[in-house]
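STRUCTURE:
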C-alpha cells in the first residue's frame, strides 16, 4: 500500500472500464479472470433483476431455491463425464477447501475404508486459493511461506512446464518425464495419499505455466492405477478460457472432484461449486444417526441471485456459440503479439486460447530472469494502463486474459498496446506494435 496508485472504476460496459477520472480502459484481465460475456450484459442483468423480484437469498442448509436446483442440474449437464453432485460455496478457495474435506472423508466412510489416506499431492508452484487448506497446497512461497506453522505439508509434485524444461529433456519427452516423476511419488506414497490436486493444462498464478499435451490424461491414469482421487481445480481454466468449456475436456478427463468458480456467474457475483462423481457422494449417503453427512456449510452457498446470473451466463454459451469462437480469438490475441515474438527480453508467449502469459527475461537465450527488485512486469503493466489497456503482472509474466466476447479489433489493439509498453519499458526496443489512439 505504500506504493499504491489509486485506480477507481465508476462504470463499465462490454470490455471497457471507466475510471473516476474519465479514463477508458480495456479490461485486459477480465476483472481477475472472471468476466466472460462483458460488463452489463443485458441477459445477465435481466436475470438478476427478475430473480430479485422473487427472492434474493435463502439458506441451502435444510432447504434450497428453485433457481439453485436448476443451476445444479445445468452444471451436471456441462461438466465432464459422470460428475453429478454439486456443493455450492462463495469463492474458488472455498470450493477447494470443500474438495479437500470431501476427499479425506470419502476414504474414511466408503466401503472398504482407507483411513490412512490423509495426504495430498500438489504440483510445484501450485496455486489453489488463499484460505488455509488451499494455501497448504500452494507452492508459491509468497502465499504460504509465512504461514507454515498453521498449514499442512503436501507431497510436492513436479512443475510440468513446457518452457523451462529439465536438463536433457526435450519438448517431445516432457510429458513422459513429468508423468514418470508423478508415478515415482505415487509408488512411494499412494497408501497415504487421498488425492492429487492440480490445475489442468495451465497453472495460472504460477505465470500461465502450460503443461505438455497429454500430461493431464496421464495423471488420471496414474490415479486410477494407484487408487488415488484426482481433484481438478478449474476455477481459473473453466468456462471457456482454454477453448473448451473446461480444460479437462481437451483430454477427455473426468476428475473425481472438480472445483469451479470465477466465470461461473459470468464474473457478476461471488459463487463457486465443488462437483463430485457418484462414488464420492455415495460414501456420504446414510441415515442421520450414522453421522456420515458432510459437516461443512456456507451461509451464501447457492445464493439465488448468483444462481440466476450463472444460469444466464451458461445459456449465453449455447445461444452465441461462444466456444466455437474462443480458439480463433486466442489466435488473434497471439497474432497481435507477433511484434514482440523475437524481442530480446521476451522469453516465452504461452497459454491456451484466451489465457496468455508473456514472460519477460533478462536474457532470452539463457532464460535468465530479471532481478525481482527491478519490477519489470509491474512497470510494463503500468505503462499499458497509461495507454488504455488494464493488465496485471504475475512477477515478470504479463497476463492477457480478456473477456471471451472481445472483438478481433479490441484484441488486436490490446496486443498492440502491450507490445508498445514492453518496447518502451525495456529500453525502447522496436516492437512493431504501435498504440492506436481513439480506441472505441
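SEQUENCE:
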Amino acid at each position: 500500500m505504500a506504493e499504491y496508485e489509486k485506480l477507481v472504476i465508476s462504470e463499465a460496459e462490454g470490455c471497457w472500464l471507466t475510471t473516476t477520472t474519465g479514463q477508458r480502459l480495456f479490461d485486459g484481465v477480465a476483472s481477475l479472470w472472471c468476466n466472460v460475456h462483458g460488463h452489463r450484459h443485458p441477459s445477465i442483468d435481466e436475470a438478476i433483476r427478475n430473480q430479485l423480484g422473487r427472492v434474493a437469498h435463502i439458506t441451502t442448509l435444510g432447504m434450497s431455491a428453485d433457481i439453485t436446483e436448476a443451476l445444479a442440474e445445468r452444471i451436471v449437464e456441462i461438466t465432464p463425464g459422470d460428475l453429478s453432485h454439486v456443493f455450492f460455496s462463495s469463492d474458488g478457495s472455498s470450493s477447494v477447501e470443500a474438495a479437500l474435506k470431501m476427499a479425506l472423508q470419502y476414504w474414511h466412510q466408503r466401503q472398504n475404508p482407507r483411513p490412512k489416506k490423509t495426504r495430498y499431492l500438489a504440483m510445484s508452484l501450485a496455486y489453489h486459493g488463499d484460505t488455509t487448506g488451499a494455501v497448504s497446497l500452494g507452492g508459491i512461497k509468497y502465499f504460504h511461506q509465512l504461514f507454515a506453522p498453521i498449514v499442512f505439508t503436501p507431497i510436492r509434485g513436479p512443475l510440468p512446464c513446457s518452457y523451462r524444461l529439465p536438463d536433457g529433456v526435450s519438448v517431445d519427452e516432457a510429458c513422459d518425464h513429468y508423468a514418470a516423476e508423478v508415478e515415482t511419488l505415487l509408488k512411494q506414497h499412494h497408501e497415504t495419499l487421498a488425492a492429487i490436486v492440480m490445475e489442468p493444462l495451465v497453472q495460472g498464478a504460477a505465470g500461465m505455466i502450460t503443461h505438455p499435451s497429454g500430461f493431464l490424461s496421464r495423471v488420471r491414469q496414474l490415479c486410477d492405477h494407484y487408487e488415488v482421487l484426482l481433484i481438478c481445480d478449474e476455477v481459473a481454466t473453466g468456462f471457456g478460457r482454454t477453448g473448451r468449456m473446461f480444460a479437462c475436456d481437451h483430454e477427455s478427463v473426468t476428475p473425481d472432484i472438480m472445483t469451479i468458480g470465477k466465470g461461473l456467474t459470468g464474473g457478476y457475483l461471488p459463487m463457486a461449486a465443488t462437483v463430485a462423481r457418484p462414488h464420492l457422494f455415495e460414501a456420504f449417503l446414510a441415515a442421520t444417526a450414522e453421522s456420515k453427512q458432510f459437516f461443512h456449510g456456507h451461509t451464501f452457498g447457492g445464493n439465488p441471485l448468483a444462481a440466476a446470473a450463472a444460469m444466464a451466463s451458461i445459456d449465453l454459451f449455447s445461444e452465441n456459440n461462444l466456444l466455437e469462437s474462443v480458439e480463433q480469438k486466442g489466435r488473434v490475441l497471439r497474432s497481435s503479439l507477433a511484434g514482440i515474438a523475437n524481442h530480446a527480453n521476451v522469453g516465452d508467449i504461452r497459454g491456451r486460447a484466451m489465457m496468455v502469459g508473456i514472460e519477460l527475461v533478462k536474457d532470452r537465450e539463457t532464460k535468465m530472469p530479471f532481478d525481482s527488485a527491478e519490477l519489470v512486469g509491474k512497470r510494463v503493466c503500468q505503462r499499458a494502463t497509461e495507454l488504455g489497456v488494464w493488465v496485471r503482472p504475475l512477477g515478470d509474466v504479463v497476463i492477457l486474459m480478456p473477456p471471451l466476447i472481445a472483438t478481433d479489433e479490441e484484441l488486436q489493439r490490446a496486443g498492440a498496446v502491450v507490445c508498445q509498453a514492453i518496447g518502451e519499458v525495456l529500453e525502447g526496443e522496436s516492437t512493431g506494435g504501435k498504440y492506436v489512439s481513439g480506441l472505441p
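REMARK: The first strand starts at residue 9 and ends at 13.
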